[in-house]
Structure formats: C-alpha cells, structure tokens
Design a protein that fits this description.
This protein is α/β, with parallel strands linked by helices and 425 residues long. The chain is 29% helix and 23% strand.
Length: 425
C-alpha cells in the first residue's frame, strides 16, 4: 500500500475552488496568510465595513491550518506561576484567561453558531512519562490557581487501561474540557465566514515585498501590486523574508503526523476506550487521537530535526507509536505529512504592530484554539474596536542574538531533550 503524503484531513474535505477575483488595486486591509488567523481577522475587518483582501501563497489549507492534529486545549504554555514572576499577579491572571477564552470562543462557534468543524468534546489523557512526572501532575491538579481551575481527574497507573490500552505511561490526568476538530473542516468553515462577512480571499498569490507608500503600504505580489491602508501578517510557521523583524522572533519547527490504515472502530476504541486525545509529559512530546470516523489512529510528534520529507519520517513515527502500542507493530501507514509550527522565545503568542504593520503570530503548536481567538482580536483592533484589546498587547517580543530565522540551535536542543526523555529525567 502506497503512503499518501496528502494530509488525511484533505482527503476528508476537499477545498472548494475560490472565486477567480482579480487582485484589487486598492483595499483598506490586506492580510498576508489565509489560515485560521488571517481568515478570523478578515471576518472582523470586513464586517466593520473595511474593504478586506486575504492573500494566501498557495492553496487554502497548504499551511498548518490544514494539516495540524486538531486538538483543542487550554494553550498558554507558561504556567501561571512563571507568568506571575515576570508580569505580576494581575497580568499573569489576564494572560491565562486569554487561553481559557480561546477555547470558549471556538466551542461557541462550533456548538452555538453551528460551525462545521467536527467538534468533539471527549477530553484528553495526559500521560506521565515517569513516576516523577506523575507526582508533579497530581500536585498541579490539586493546587490549581484560584479562578483558573480546569476539570481534571487523576488516573493512577493501576487504572490507566480505562484510558489507553498501554502500560507505557505511569498514570496521568484527564482534562475533561479538551476537545478535537477536523482542522481542514475548521479552516473551510472560517473561510466561509470570512467570505460571507465580505472579505475577498485569493489563493496562489504570494507576497514578495511590503513597502511604505504615503499613509499606507504598497504590497508587491506574484500577481501585481496593491495599495493597502493597513497590513496584517498572519503567516505563523510559514513566515519568510517579507518581514525580517518577525522572522527573527519566530522559530519554525516541523511537526510530523501519520494516519494508520483503517483499523475498524472496535479496535480503535480498544486502544483509546474513551475516544480522547492523548499527549504525554516528555519534552519532545507525541500526540495522538482516533480519527473522527473512529477508523484510524492519527499519531504525531517531532520525528526529525531538519527533515522536510514526510515519507522519510514514517519509520521513526511508526516506531514511536509502537513503543506505546506494541500491538500495532504490523499495522501499515496510509498517510504521512508534516507542517511548520511557530515557537517564540518566551513561548507566548504575540500580536501587535511594528513599523505600522500589524502581526499576530507564534502559537507554539497550539494554534487550533489560539489562532481564531487572537485573529478575531487583531482584526477588531485594526478597525478600532475596544473589545479587540488583549492581555498580550504591548508585551515585548523577544529575539536572540545571531538569530535571523534559521534555527541553528534547534538540533542540539532537541537532541538534548530526547536524551533527557530517554533516561527518564
């Protein structure tokens, strides 16, 4: 059986051809990037009456919005304690609340506004890689910051088979409010919302340069030039040389996934009895879940340091999967793909404006809930709405000396993390 390098999600939901609009000569708002962020922002600016165009370099869904794992969870990476030490109690609390609001917003779109994204609220099992990790999980679950509590249940190793048909972990915790989506369906639903709101979306239109021009900007694209009063860069892990300032502040990291051949719903349910997402406490994490139809296992992780060929990563991902599920040793891989996520040096998302150009970027692998939320907020900011303000506004956006967009430090860092994981530290 040949392995398809087209993401599994794109077999489930083909992209409808976009209307063949010509590139306009002038717009109020030009958005670079047609993923969750750009489309969510476009919905807001267009609905406020601003002539808005979104430019996508390739086809809709070519970036990570069409090829991620579809897992939805509270997604602010630094702990409340770490944020409090940096910004004080009030600011830390507000930043954490943004993560909660992001999940609530997406849940509302799916359950109240009928967004067609295959929303499933089954929760997530967070597996402990070592007994020490399990003890830390229990402590954290029992000592959550007041007002930021999540619904968490502790699962001992003795009871672990209720969650996963594996002895690989040392117990863990269930996060009951976590959910999953079909990421491609989510993207197409956000595309429809943006178009219905009045935005124009053009694909196969990469942006080559952005220059100041009078009170606005001149944008050079592969299809000609366009004048814009405001510009938003929403390219996340696919940010290139168009903005060297942003490129110095995001770290593109490849995330790799495979989908097994069809196993049958009964077998998949035996592997993951509660139909949950699964992640674990390793530094180089893996993440996996049943496919929405319950027929396959979708398994992802950091399978390579620089490899861009998804097929080359199949043996490593398969080996990672079968360490957890030895019973899948003979199961074949049907799909293999990869995408680029964008980390930041402080592991926080960032939105704001630099030299007049707006940006919203850096979700650190958690863009499914964060990108629609912050995309909406930056769009509201661009049309002057007070409700667009966030706790992350005006935060310093750090870089590092000698970093210009090529993460030379990534390979030794990941190697060190893998070594620590291997020895159980």
């Amino acid at each position: 059986m040949a392995v398809s390098t087209k993401p599994y999600w794109q077999h489930r939901g083909a992209v409808t051809a976009l209307p063949g609009h010509a590139l306009p000569a002038r717009v109020d708002v030009l958005i670079v990037g047609g993923g969750y962020t750009g489309l969510s922002a476009a919905r807001e600016t267009a609905a406020a009456g601003a002539a808005t165009v979104v430019l996508e370099a390739g086809v809709i869904g070519a970036g990570c919005s069409g090829r991620n794992g579809g897992q939805v969870a509270y997604s602010i990476k630094p702990s409340y304690t770490a944020l409090k030490s940096l910004y004080g109690e009030s600011k830390a609390y507000a930043i954490c609340q943004e993560g909660r609001e992001a999940v609530s917003y997406l849940r509302g779109l799916a359950t109240e506004q009928g967004l067609d994204c295959d929303w499933r609220e089954r929760g997530c099992f967070f597996g402990a890689h070592t007994p020490r990790h399990f003890a830390a999980m229990v402590h954290d679950a029992q000592n959550q910051p007041r007002g930021l509590e999540q619904r968490i249940s502790v699962v001992s190793k003795a009871d672990q088979r209720q969650e996963i048909d594996s002895d690989f972990y040392h117990g863990g915790c269930v996060y009951h409010d976590d959910a999953s989506v079909d990421p491609m369906r989510l993207l197409l639903a956000l595309l429809r919302r943006a178009q219905e709101g009045g935005a124009t979306v053009l694909d196969h239109c990469p942006v080559e340069a952005i220059q100041r021009s009078g009170e606005g900007f001149e944008i050079l694209t592969a299809r000609g030039k366009v004048q814009a009063r405001q510009v938003l860069i929403a390219t996340n892990g696919y940010s290139g040389p168009v903005s060297p300032w942003l490129r110095r502040r995001v770290i593109p990291i490849g995330s790799y996934q495979i989908a097994t051949e069809a196993l049958g719903t009964e077998r998949v349910r035996t592997l993951i009895p509660q139909d949950r997402n699964i992640v674990d406490s390793r530094r180089v994490v893996v993440y996996f879940r049943p496919s929405p139809d319950g027929e396959r296992l979708i398994f992802g992780g950091r399978a390579a340091l620089y490899e861009k060929d998804a097929l080359a990563c199949v043996p490593r991902l398969h080996a990672m999967m079968t360490r957890i599920f030895p019973q899948l040793r003979d199961v074949r891989t049907a799909y293999a793909w990869m995408g680029w996520v964008a980390y930041t040096f402080d592991t926080l998302p960032h939105l704001g404006r630099h030299e007049g150009i707006h940006y919203c970027i850096g979700y650190c692998g958690q863009g499914v809930p964060l990108a629609p939320h912050f995309g909406r907020r930056i769009g509201q900011q661009m049309v002057g709405l007070q409700e667009g303000r966030t706790a992350l506004d005006n935060l310093a956006f750090p870089s590092r000396p000698y970093y210009f967009g090529v993460p030379w430090f990534l390979a030794p860092t990941v190697f060190a993390y893998r070594t620590l994981d291997a020895v159980g530290v």
